[in-house]
Write a structure and sequence with these properties.
- There is one protein chain.
- With about 350 residues, the protein is α/β, with parallel strands linked by helices.
- It has helices at about 140-145, 185-195, 235-245, 255-265, 305-310, 315-325; strands spanning about 25-30, 40, 55-60, 60-65, 65-70, 80-90, 90-95, 105-110, 115-120, 130-135, 170-175, 200-205, 225-230, 250, 275, 290-295, 335-340.
- The protein has six helices and 17 strands.
- It has a nine-stranded mixed beta sheet. A six-stranded antiparallel β-barrel has the order 5-6-7-10-9-8.
- Helix 5 packs across helix 6 (about 315-325).
- The radius of gyration is 21 Å and the shape is globular.
Length: about 350
């Protein structure tokens, strides 16, 4: 199975650079994974596609405003630091630019007397381990000084930080948003509840590895990045009851999908846990839990388009993507969505 099998041609102008003013006004392509039939819809009508007794699973992670700009102590040139993973207390694993300027022992000033950091280690892949020094509460300082770590294909400035968060975001820790959830409003969630749809939450902190391209020709040789997730017993009970009663489980986003498939055993029972997952879902994978998936449109040759092809079939997905290009759907993080049923 070749990585090139998952390529499609996308005009650059279809990459959404800014979010819509109203979250729920995005378009939604409905794809029947068995027949390949396509229906062009609006996301605001999603309640018509989910039945009473079904369960939707949302990832309630919250994006860190993880991009910081500063300068070396005594120097003026700009230094960019992207927080990737908290190691211990004030120690973080980061990406930095320009890397050659930040050797062990280098001090970076972000705002005088408020936030600074010292490089403690240089890792083999060039990442830096840094230790922060600050006055006050770190998350409040980060909210003040940091900016959202938007994907590299978004070049326009985000005017409202909250538009790169879901309305139900809760647990701070992601380097990127679970973008399928960006379409939901509190009103849509209420409509689903009123219809008798169960809504449960899991947490998976999205790593920067989600943007890492597949660099090998053979899909199966790709090494998947790890991400930390939590699913509690209450959520598991609802999900297991849903399946037992013959209803469907809808995953909102590939991140929720990775949690559900990682926490489900071979008998189709999901268990509460908190751990890292590096699950890589590619064609041939047997889905143990999810019945349907709401997801945005993904980059060519990415692990995410490979995942959705595993659920709906490569030919169905590429046909749907080519249709979306022809109909000028908006692509990627701030773009439109697809419901695979």
């Amino acid at each position: 199975m070749k990585t090139s099998d998952f390529y499609y041609d996308l005009p650059h102008e279809l990459i959404a650079q800014t979010p819509l003013k109203e979250r729920e006004k995005s378009r939604m392509m409905v794809l029947d994974k068995k027949t390949g039939n396509i229906l062009d819809e609006k996301f605001e009508n999603i309640t018509e596609y989910i039945n009473e007794g079904d369960t939707i699973v949302l990832n309630d992670t919250k994006v860190l405003p993880a991009r910081l700009f500063g300068h070396r102590e005594g120097k003026e040139e700009a230094i960019e630091v992207l927080l990737l993973k908290q190691r211990d207390g004030n120690v973080w694993q980061t990406l930095v630019k320009p890397g050659k300027k930040l050797q062990i022992g280098t001090k970076v000033i972000f705002e005088e007397k408020l936030l600074s950091a010292i490089v403690r280690d240089v890792l083999e892949d060039g990442q830096r381990v840094i230790e922060f020094e600050y006055t006050g509460i770190f998350n409040e300082i980060l909210d003040k000084l940091g900016s959202m770590p938007l994907p590299p294909y978004i070049t326009e400035k985000l005017e409202d930080k909250d538009r790169y968060q879901t309305v139900y975001s809760k647990h701070l820790g992601s380097a990127a948003a679970p973008t399928a959830g960006l379409h939901f409003t509190n009103d849509i969630l209420k409509q689903l509840e009123n219809k008798g749809v169960n809504i449960v939450y899991v947490t998976l902190h999205v790593g920067i590895g989600t943007f890492r391209p597949v660099k090998v020709d053979d899909v199966e040789k790709h090494e998947m990045h790890s991400e930390y997730f939590v699913i509690d017993e209450e959520a598991c009970n609802v999900i297991n009851k849903t399946k037992k009663e013959g209803h469907k489980v809808y995953s909102v986003g590939t991140t929720s999908c990775r949690v559900l498939e990682s926490a489900t055993d071979e008998d189709g029972i999901i268990h509460s846990m908190a751990k890292e997952t590096n699950i890589f879902i590619y064609p041939g994978y047997h889905f143990k839990m999810i019945d349907a998936l709401l997801t945005n449109f993904h980059l060519p040759e990415s692990t995410l388009i490979i995942l959705v092809s595993s659920l709906a079939g490569k030919e169905n997905i590429l046909n749907a993507y080519n249709s979306a290009v022809q109909k000028k759907y908006r692509f990627f993080s701030f773009g439109d969505c697809m419901l695979i049923k």
